Amino acid sequence: MTLEQLKEKYEIVGTIDLGQWTDDYQHSSEWLRKQCQQVYQMEYSENQRIVFLHSFDYYVKNSDSAGLILKNLQLALNETDISNYFVVVCSTNTDHRISKYRSCDSEFFQHVWRI
Do the strands 11-17 and 87-91 form a parallel or antiparallel pair, or are they unpaired? Predict the structure, then answer.
């Protein structure tokens, strides 16, 4: 699904490119929290979504968990009080662990593969 197709289906509150993540963990995690704070709303309507563009990640060797960027995305969403229901991760990564990862939120990320 393309970003244009998502825009036809949902009212996009914000689009955040996770490709901005760098090898500087501290800086990148702070950047991600700020991005989430900028799209935070007290309430979202049923049709609103925040789109995160995801093209790469960092994985712990021999681990079967989601990547470092997605884990930090979940933490930033939790800290900002944004439900996964309003999040779409649009990824070129076909790793099945993406859509299965969640934290304390009862909802999974919506995961779509972009072409």
Answer: unpaired
The pTM of the full predicted model, rounded to 2 decimals, is 0.84
Q: What are the residue ranges in the chain where pLDDT is below 50?
A: 99, 115
Phi, psi of 12 (to 5 degrees): -85, 120
d(CA 27, CA 97): 25
Q: How many CA atoms lie within 13 A of 35 on its CB side?
A: 24
- Which residues lie across from 42 on neighbouring strands? none
Q: What is the edge-to-edge ordering of all strands in the sheet holding 87-91? A: 11-17, 48-54, 87-91, 110-113
